[in-house]
Amino acid sequence: MSAAPAGGPISRMSLRGRVVAITLLLVVTALLASNALLVTLLERQLVHQLDYRLRTAATTAARLPDLAQAPADNPPQLRGTVEGELTGDAYVAYLDAKGRIRQTLPPAPDSVPRLPLLDRASVEARDKRPFQVPDSGRGDDWRVIAVPAEGAGQAAPGSVVAAGSLAPVHATIRHLGVWMLVIDSLVLALLGVIAWYAVRAGLRPLRRIETTAAAIAGGELSSRIPQPATTNTELGRLSAALNGMLDRIEAGDAARSATNERMRTFIADASHELRTPLFGIKGFTELYRMGGMPQRTDVDSAMNRIEREAARLVRIVEDLLLLARLDDEATAEARLPLQLTPMDLRTLAADALHDLRAMAPERPVTLTGPGGGPPGRAPVLGDEARLRQVTSNLVGNAIAHTPPGTPVRIGVGTLDGQAVLELSDQGPGMTPEQATHIFDRFYRADTARGRTPTGGAGLGLSIVHSLVGAHHGHVEVDTAPGQGTTFRILLPLPDESPLTSS
After folding, report:
1. According to the per-residue pLDDT averaged within each range, which of 15-19, 44-48, 74-78, 324-328 is highest?
2. pLDDT, tens digit, for every residue of 193-225?
3. d(Cα 215, Cα 296) in Å, to the nearest integer?
4. pLDDT bracket for residue 37 (50, 70, 90)
């Protein structure tokens, strides 16, 4: 039972939706912070301006003469003068020494500040600093500044209070807030649309990656992500890395398919090669059981055939086991320990010469150096028994696949800092395609599945290639149709051989 995907609505959103949502959230946060700072600074500035006007009004009123002591025709003129100096929305009151209101300029409106007790001592203690008091009703607060009266002809020392309502400040802030809300909403809507299309364009390479991944999941391993103009960006490096990974995946899949195909071919060929001697043994045993061999000579002949088929079966199984032990190059030495000793390939060349003359006396056989000339020294560090098995397989291959009487040349010496042993014949040769597969198991150049006249199973050259590789050497093939075939074994000299350190 599969678990339900964890996370809330955000986790179910597309990447584009998440990026746009996060972007808008950051913009909203930035706008709220900047607007709050702007409103705070503006409010402070407006209050500071109000305090400045109130301080000017209070100072001006404090320097005027006592209006109550002025002649009857002077107060209106003086009040007009004072009102001209003061702002129209300021509340100005004259207080006596005990803080009682003696007079207001202009006459007190309906809404006035609720002043605390402002006697002469408390006014001097405030030192012209503004303070805030509530409204007498339910209106906005008031900013208040109180200064000592300094006018000439004052009856008693008192003070002057100038107050201004914060209602205009609050109205301005509210008006600004409404406009900020409208403007921010339009900005957010516009940014949301722009961000949606910008993120969509920016994530287009990811959509191409998604499309390519879906195609690969559907079996199109040749699909590749379009390479961007530059690989210096994150998407460029991601595309390059994914294309490299896809190349390796495709190569690995092709290699795996080729390996599976070779395995199927190998199993079919091995089954055929093993089945042939087994069927021969089974046929003779059934013939004996059915009484088809009444004479002793018939039984002896059948037993000889069974022995030959059993020996052939043993050779095939041993060759397969040897190849299996040599398959893993990393552990070939552990699976097939080599008895490494100093030796000279001239010994193997001389033995191959004697074997050829004994097995095919009608063939002209010569011993030369690599490519011709006199033979030379070819010292190596190797397993003589395994290298002898290599030369035996090459000799058997030359006898089996060339017509009787075909000349054979054996070359031995050094070439380009390597020990060389080669076996060359003047037989029919092979095409380049046949030479490519010559070391494949169970491969025969004539593609016939039947046995060769010598009973080979097509494993000899595979064993040659694997054993030479176990000695850190390699095998070369020079051939062409009608020009014969040359197998050349190249092994490292002892002072350059990596086997000397093991």
Report:
1. 44-48
2. 888 888 877 777 777 777 877 877 777 777 777
3. 72
4. very high
Each residue's pLDDT tens digit, 152-177? 444 557 888 888 888 888 899 999 98
Going by their DSSP bridges, the two strands 365-368 and 341-344 should be labelled as: unpaired
Dihedral pair phi/psi, residue 341, rounded to 5°: -140, 155
Separation of alpha carbons 216 and 424, rounded Å: 49
**Three-class SS string for 427-451?**
CCCCCHHHHHCCCCCCCCCCCCCCC
SS3 483: coil
Percent of the chain that is helix, strand, coil (3-state, to 5): 55, 15, 30
> Domain spans of the chain?
16-173, 235-326, 338-501
Residue 270 scores a pLDDT above 80: no
CA–CA gap between residue 203 and residue 193 (Å, rounded): 15
Query: What's the pLDDT at 455?
Result: 47
Q: How far apart are CA 329 and CA 227, in angstroms?
A: 38
Tokens (6 digits) for 151: 């006018």
Q: Provide the token pair at 74.
A: 């002077």
Cis bond upstream, residue 106 (ω within 30): yes
Pairwise CA distance, residues 300 & 402, whole Å: 33
Flag whether pLDDT at 108 surpasses 70.
no
Residue type at 492? P
Domain 338-501 class in CATH: alpha beta
DSSP string, 216-235: HHTT-TT--PPPPS-SSSHH
Judge contact between 195 and 20, C-beta under 8 A: yes
Supply 38's token pair.
């702007």
Confidence band of 447 (pLDDT split at 50, 70, 90): very low
Residue 224, helix vs strand vs coil: coil
| Cβ-contact 438, 401 below 8 angstroms | no
- Name the phi and psi angles at 81, rounded to 5: -65, -45
CATH code matching the domain that covers 235-326, chosen among 3.30.70.420, 1.10.287.130, 3.40.50.300, 2.60.40.1120: 1.10.287.130
Q: Hey, how many other C-beta atoms are within 10 angstroms of the C-beta on 219? A: 8
